[in-house]
Amino acid sequence: MTLTIRRAAAADAQIIAENNCALAWETEQLRLNPAIVAAGVRMGLQRAPEARYFVAELAGRVVGQLMYSREWSDWRNGWIIWLQSVYVSAEYRQQGVFRQLLEQSAAEVSREDRPVCLRLYVDQQNRAATGCYERLGFAADNYRVMEKQLRLPDATEG
What global pTM score does this model have? Predict the structure, then answer.
């Protein structure tokens, strides 16, 4: 399979947003507000290097995607790169799409930011994703992600 791995462009915003909604439903049975997700993707596409989207294309069709965001670590004196919005179309799973997407995009981000590590969060019930990440060298750590809502999302921003 000959994939093209590239940075996402504004023209990819709609398919990325649709995939994000599909991801939330498939992994957590969450129905996201498509307008909010679309606005968030459009804003993210304008926020490099804080947010960087990459896509995997096959014959001109986006079949996979991921986003990186970065966090400065004073403890490590370097960037921690968070892997987010990972999605591969169902018919292309377990064919190496994610591996190629991760390897090529991570190499580009590593050249630019020289990060100390890649991190991600995965729903504890998502065994397929957990197994995939473990096969690619990710390991659980001793941290637990916690969240405090500060405001409601707004579809008009971005």
Answer: 0.90
